[in-house]
Design a protein that fits this description.
167 residues; mainly beta; Metal Binding Protein, Guanine Nucleotide Exchange Factor, Chain A; 3-stranded antiparallel sheet; 2 helices; 32% strand; globular; disordered N terminus
């Protein structure tokens, strides 16, 4: 028999995720399996997305295409497709990374304390696959005063096309 029986089988864990249509309409909560195989991530992701999401790297500021896009759409986790942010809450923070005032749904982001590099920050993660997304800072604009500073390599942008825009 192989495997560490003292650790729970994370493949059998589920997490509540709020699902959204391509137009951003809430579709309700679903309990989805947690995803976590490093071997699978390495095969599925670009080297940049793997480094950011699985190894906690950071995109270089102002360098990753799309960091400053203002196109309407949804930002999903590059690893598992969980809907994370809407372009409606995106703002130009001047930092070189996409910044948002709030997630699409509180269930769709997780946070934890990050004390790496001698700093004390709040890390933002995908609750379904534990992908490192970026960090949360208390210096954003109204209405939340929050800045979700997210690596562009951790996001899959899905634009709202003319046929799926709300009427």
């Amino acid at each position: 028999m192989t495997g560490d029986l003292s650790q729970p089988d994370r493949h059998q864990e589920t997490v509540p995720i709020a699902e959204f249509s391509p137009t951003g309409t809430p579709l309700g909560l679903r309990s989805l399996p947690r995803l976590d195989s490093d071997h699978e991530w390495k095969a599925r992701l670009s080297p940049e997305a793997y480094a950011v999401t699985r190894r906690h790297a950071t995109d270089p500021p102002f360098k990753v295409p799309g960091y400053d896009s203002h196109e309407a759409g949804l930002y999903r986790c590059i690893c598992c497709g969980t809907a994370l942010f809407s372009s409606m809450t995106k703002f130009d923070s001047g930092t070189g990374w996409p910044s948002f005032t709030a997630p699409l749904a509180p269930e769709n982001v997780a946070t934890r304390e990050d004390t790496s590099y001698g700093m004390r920050r709040t890390e933002v993660l995908c609750p379904r696959c534990d992908a490192h997304l970026g960090h949360l800072f208390p210096d954003g604009p109204a209405p939340t005063g929050l800045r979700y500073c997210i690596n562009r390599s951790a996001l899959d942008f899905v634009p709202l096309s003319e046929e799926n825009r709300p009427k």
